[in-house]
Write a structure and sequence with these properties.
With 385 residues, this protein is of the alpha/beta class. Helices cover 38% and strands 19% of the residues. Belongs to the glycerate kinase type-1 family. This is Glycerate kinase.
Amino acid sequence: MKTTRAGTARVPRVLIAADKFKGSLTAVQVAERVMAGLRRVVPDVEVEALPVADGGDGTVDAAVAAGFERREVRVAGPLGDELTAAFALRGDTAVVEMAEASGLQRLPAGVFAPLTSSTYGSGELLRAALDAGARTIVFGVGGSATTDGGAGMLSALGARFVDAEGEPVAPGGAALSDVATADLSGLDPRLSSVDFVLASDVDNPLTGPKGAPAVYGPQKGASPDDVEILDAALGHFAAVLEKSIGSRATEYAAAPGAGAAGGIGYGALVLGARFRPGIEVMLDVLGFAPALERATLVITGEGSLDEQTLHGKAPAGVAAAARAAGKEVVAVCGRLALRPEALGRAGIRRAYPLTEVEPDIARCISDAGPILETVAQNIARDFLT
């Protein structure tokens, strides 16, 4: 136990600000397991849990854990089937997670629909947030099943996209090649009076080699031919929108974040959203700064600490903020693929992967909770005693 100059014990205060271990533990469960492990070694340790997310799946859960109210609503899933999705509300601030309505986890097991899945339900979630009185909407995007440029979302909010015969185009990204006219005059007027924040951990443009179809389409089951179809369709969609809203449509397509979550970022920009890195937004919304001020040690983490972590993922954002405040940071993870010097540059003193305790990766996934508790005991011994 660390002591003051007078020799009296000073109880350490730990802030656990970790993301989920995807496929194993939610961010809330990660915090619970780390807390349990720390207290086995230092029973009187003061622990504050602030589960975090970077805008992708788990964002609503993180907001609820921070004191937001969970609101449920029936919306269309990515294939059009009705499902129950949630957003989070505190006062007049709403946190809306597109993956709740349009995420990969909303598809049946083993099913992908890269050409036909729609973001219509995400638009319904945004409308529900407006109905609940939201004046600020944080729109977390990631983990999508869709590549429709946000066309479904825009339709749910009052836009109309019709073909050369004047008929509504079918759902999904591929059908955007049939759009002849885009009419945005019917968009929900409340959108113009809210602070609409697009929160994403990626800054890709809509189309091209670094665009949504090329980079993320394969993760959603898109073949090389599908990627070509989707890229062309999204490019056509932006060109048609240019006839409706002018050069902004083309500017938005090239803007950072336009390609997020299958291009729903583009649709959000069309609606007037401002893009911010997801973890920065969520740390503000969750009240990270005052929690950080109270801490003597910060524990962050996610399922895999790798090169992607360094580019806008939650642990990197937490570590950067903690380093700026002069606080020491360690990380927990299932798998570690970063060298110590890379961790150091990110502001992470040391990383503790589950594989150090259990080399069998399958067991690390299936028994992540107990193994993480053991890892947390090691952190306590190294940093709290």
